[in-house]
């Protein structure tokens, strides 16, 4: 089965094509084709590649997403070396939808599902409209191909009310103001992958998964389900991030409103784009540049790094307390997979929990590996983020389930 995955962001669109056997491998596989569009006002930069080789690279004039997306996708079945005989070979298309509201699992796209995505615009005004636009473009380009919405919030729907409800007026809950959590597709994948790497049953493990990139979040995973997470009503809550504050005293906001007469848009810009690693260091949101500046004696870079690790380890400890202990600690995403320094500093602060790194394994930073010391009570792993593959896997399972149900009905 050939499965196309679309990840539609506010300024980019990423696509990948997978070909799954029946059943697919339990281990992640590389896509047979990948593509990306970067939108800049009325221009779009397109790139596609396969097996590590560039296939297409060009810029086009595009006043909307549709022409650029259509040209990107047709590279799959047209051109000098098409990978598909025709567009009809695409069996199902999966979409990453950032905010799923009440949805707790992937689901086939229907008019009512599209309406639900639209209702959640208010919670994710930059991302959900882009996700729905991607669905509608596929309808126009590929006709009636089955489409699946995979929600970034769905994994966290299992969080108990004690962790999900905010301590404001109870009426907030009826208005949808609660902890939703994000990065759920990757948190769920990493928990399953970690259990497989450890040779353990997922339901037997208590783990904290650390998605550390430009956006950062933790998930406390018990018996394969999310028990708590650091991101909340929006992706702004929780850990210090690349350009986002993470959690701060809300009194700071009322102070700025009163003293500086800031508008909601001005506050949003400060909190989401001018804070975090970039705001404190004054240099960059890239951890590699922060570490390089520290080595050059930059005190603000050192402060940014120390703050990042302090908030990370404090939150890991809090998640561990909520789980009643921890069996595995998982690092994933850009910083999690690539920063030897962050992993080493965080684990050094967590030795009281029985976390001990093997420094040589940590330095090798091989993904999908156990980097803990032999005497560590807690296993520490690096797991490569595989959101596209996880979305494609969800699509295969849904499509297979629908096919089985149809066969059963025919048999009856």
SSE diagram, text form:
Layout: E1 2-8, E2 12-19, E3 33-40, E4 43-50, E5 53-61, H1 65-74, E6 90-97, E7 107-108, H2 111-119, H3 128-142, E8 147-151, H4 161-164, H5 171-174, H6 184-198, E9 206-212, E10 216-222, E11 225-229, H7 250-260, H8 264-273, H9 276-281, H10 287-295, H11 299-323, E12 328-332, H12 333-338, H13 340-349, H14 359-364, E13 369-370, E14 379-382, H15 387-411
Parallel strand pairs: 1-6, 6-8, 9-12, 12-14
Antiparallel strand pairs: 1-2, 2-3, 3-4, 4-5, 7-8, 9-10, 10-11, 13-14
Can you describe what's shown?
The protein contains 15 helices and 14 strands. It is 40% helix and 21% strand. The chain has helices at 65-74, 111-119, 128-142, 161-164, 171-174, 184-198, 250-260, 264-273, 276-281, 287-295, 299-323, 333-338, 340-349, 359-364, 387-411, and strands spanning 2-8, 12-19, 33-40, 43-50, 53-61, 90-97, 107-108, 147-151, 206-212, 216-222, 225-229, 328-332, 369-370, 379-382. Helix 10 packs across helix 11 (299-323). The mean pLDDT is 92. The longest helix is centred in the last third of the chain and has 25 residues, at 299-323. An eight-stranded mixed β-sheet has the order 5-4-3-2-1-6-8-7, with helices on both faces.
